[in-house]
Amino acid sequence: MVVGDVSTGTDVAVVGGGPGGYVAAIRAAQLGLDATLVEMDAYGGTCLNYGCIPSKAMITATDVAHDAATAEEMGIYADPDVDFGEMVAWKDGVVDQLTGGVEKLCKANGVNLVEGRAEFAGGDKLRVVHSGEGQGSETIEYEHCVVATGSRPVEVPGFAFDDDPVLDSRQALALDDLPDSIVVVGAGYIGMEISTVLAKLGVDVTVVEMLDEALAGYPDDLTQPVKQRAEELGIDFEFGLAADSWEESDDGIVVAAEDEDREASKTPQADGEASTANSRSSRPRRCSWRSAASPSRTP
Ligand SMILES: Cc1cc2nc3c(=O)[nH]c(=O)nc-3n(C[C@H](O)[C@H](O)[C@H](O)COP(=O)(O)OP(=O)(O)OC[C@H]3O[C@@H](n4cnc5c(N)ncnc54)[C@H](O)[C@@H]3O)c2cc1C
Predict the structure, then answer these.
(1) Are 238 and 166 in contact (CB under 8 A)?
(2) Mind listing the pLDDT tens digit for each residue in 185-205?
(3) Is 171 in a helix, a strand, or coil?
(4) Is residue 40 lining ligand 1, measured as CB closer than 6 Å?
(5) Which of 26, 93, 266, 280 falls 20 to 30 Å from 20 in CA-CA distance?
(6) Is 19 in the pocket of ligand 1 (CB under 6 A)?
(7) What dihedral do alpha carbons 53, 59, 64, 68 form, nearest 10°?
(8) d(Cα 246, Cα 271) in Å, to the nearest integer?
(9) CATH number of 166-297
């Protein structure tokens, strides 16, 4: 059915159905207000669909395989045969279950759900273009509006997400098959999660980080076990480098990484999927990505 130019009114309009938005909408409804939640992609937002939940599901699954494969000292000799496609499908099932739960929870609490992209159309109105071709639009007049539109991955200059070998965190958690090697730009918690998942599955991982340490800004007693674990898994770290550019070579993808402080010239030979580093030193450190083909990915 094509819906065109419908006009509705609500006490509280919430834009964005992530953990910020759907909780606000439910609470407003529980307090007796008419609440309308507008989501343009998927209920649960980044956290449930592309972030916390898929990453933790993959960490859990890869832990099972890795623990079994490394338990000789307990007298367990196993060589798990991991079907990566099935693992990703299992992760997708977990995500579907939880996002479906969010939708049901909203409905059970009386929240009106509107699927589409919201834009402000004056001081007290939202214009929502409904998802899907030919689905029309509607105007929602509100008393109060909560903007909970979250965030999205930011491109590093020189690494457009549209370029085939360059993956953002969403794509890295939705690969169809495993690369031989990968370079992860950034040793924040997202980079560290993706790195450890892939390293446990046997991918050769190099992490390039422009600061001097991984998980900068978090307390040492929390970060030390993570760093130690990463090193035990064989993850190589290249600190003090910022992603700059990548190019194809006979050996695969080569990524230029340059010293942040424009000082020492180091030349690591990291094998990775794409290695990066940001700065304008005249002495680039170059890391190479050996895989001949890009891993296929779900768009
Ligand atoms: C790999 C990864 C792992 C993470 N792990 C953790 C973790 O373990 N713990 C943790 O606390 N956090 C984690 N995070 C961060 C967490 O995902 C975010 O902090 C959280 O999702 C923010 O919630 P939000 O509701 O503000 O925004 P989002 O979850 O981003 O939701 C915003 C929603 O708004 C919608 N939207 C945007 N614009 C419009 C519009 N104009 N109209 C309609 N809808 C719109 C979007 O489609 C989206 O669904 C992780 C993130 C990633 C990427």
Answers:
(1) no
(2) 999 999 999 999 999 999 999
(3) helix
(4) yes
(5) 93
(6) yes
(7) 180
(8) 13
(9) 3.50.50.60
